[in-house]
Specification:
Aspartate Aminotransferase, domain 2, seven-stranded mixed β-sheet, about 20% strand, 13 helices, single chain
Length: about 400
């Protein structure tokens, strides 16, 4: 069996995993890898979590798909729980983060349209952003490497430097409908908004009749130690896109919005065939059972501190390999002094998985159920990789 029949759009590492449990993956030959990639922040509760397995198995024996022509009780329950634990009044379920962002973009444009401003369709976005791979979301992200070769760029996005409130203010025109930002950039290199920036963007929106859209596809669902990253501030958005962690490995996304922001999204204005299907909703509800349990999110914050301290120690000992430690919660990053691909390969050689990102950063996105011991093991494997790289660099010099 080869990968020859597949689109050649991924540079896959020659590793095949057969099974996983918790924070560990196992190959067919029995090699075990500590997984701090988490399916790129997707496996929020690790591999084969018993509660998720039970929920999916029980639902699979009853009903897989009926479409949104009919009521889906699990969908209504998951929506109610997300509303109860957030700013939102309404939820639209999707299969992915890109679809959730498409819904968010359409919701913002439709809001302006039904409120008498059809000319308002443009959205201000930020450099380094990653919002998905559809034609609209690559335009929103604005990264040339993702735009090249796909024809005219979808109109309606104006990009400014990350977190630059003054630049965002200057970019507002009579055609501006909304501001879209990740509270904590993932693909962009684990970059956190400056203190006060989100509040300043909220005020810009309020003063100019704009909607504030947050992309919490990667940083949401407990990864920062709260259900949503925005909850570390006093700011409430109008729209939030989520995915990844809410499915724990099953494809689930959602667009959350206030009543006012979503009022224009009436019957027929938007839709999905698979979004919100019974299987996805069973898993999404199971994820919330765990993440919203008493003490769980406090545990994420405590473990995040342990991870950050461990990474800082490695950076202190090997400054020729790791230049900086950054991040929030269990969404950590190390900015590398040498090419991050080389550091990634060295860590993988220690049987540990992490994720490359922009700005020469490696992301650490362990399952939220990671133990203290597993964090220590992870730090020591990174230390071992750094030691070998540092020694090799000194020998070459």
């Amino acid at each position: 069996m080869t990968a020859g029949a597949l689109y050649q759009t991924f540079s896959r590492v020659p590793l095949e995993f057969e099974r996983g449990e918790g924070c560990w993956l196992e190959t067919r030959s029995g090699e075990r890898y500590l997984d701090f990639a988490g399916g790129i922040a997707v496996n929020s509760l690790g591999h084969s979590h018993p509660h998720l397995v039970q929920a999916l198995t029980e639902q699979a024996q009853k009903l897989w798909h009926v479409s949104n022509l009919y009521r889906v009780p699990g969908q209504e329950r998951l929506a109610e729980r997300l509303v109860e634990n957030s700013f939102a009044d309404r939820v639209f379920f999707t299969n992915s983060g890109a679809e959730a962002l498409e819904c968010a973009i359409k919701t913002a444009r439709r809001y302006q349209f039904v409120n008498g401003h059809p000319e308002k369709f443009r959205i201000i976005t930020f450099e380094g952003a990653f919002h998905g791979r559809t034609l609209a979301t690559i335009a929103a992200g604005g990264q040339k490497k993702y735009l090249e070769g796909f024809g005219p760029v979808v109109e309606g996005f104006d990009q400014v430097p990350f977190g630059d409130v003054a630049a965002a203010r200057a970019a507002i025109t009579p055609e501006t409908a909304a501001i879209l930002i990740e509270p904590l950039q993932g693909e962009g290199g684990i970059r956190q908004l400056p203190a006060g920036a989100l509040a300043a963007l909220r005020k810009l929106c309020d003063d100019n009749g704009l909607l504030l859209i947050l992309d919490e596809v990667q940083c949401g669902i407990g990864r920062t130690g709260k259900l949503f990253a925005y909850q570390w501030t006093d700011v409430e958005p109008d729209i939030v896109a989520i995915a990844k962690g809410i499915g724990g490995g099953f494809p689930v996304g959602a667009c959350l919005a206030t009543e006012a922001a979503s009022a224009g999204m009436t019957a027929g204005t938007h839709g999905t065939t698979f979004g919100g299907n019974p299987l996805a909703m069973a898993v999404g509800n199971a994820v919330l059972d765990v993440v919203l349990a008493d003490g769980f999110l406090d545990g994420v914050s405590r473990k995040a501190l342990l991870l950050k301290q461990g990474l800082a120690s490695v950076a202190d000992d090997y400054p020729d390999v790791i230049e900086d430690v950054r991040g929030f919660g269990l969404m950590a990053g190390v900015r590398c002094k040498m090419p991050n691909g080389d550091v990634n390969a060295a860590i993988r050689a220690e049987h540990m998985l992490v994720v490359p990102a922009g700005d020469n950063v490696l992301r650490l996105l362990p399952p939220l159920i990671v133990s203290d011991d597993e964090i220590r093991i992870g730090v020591e494997r990174i230390r071992a990789a750094a030691a070998k790289l540092s020694s090799a660099a000194q020998s070459a010099a």
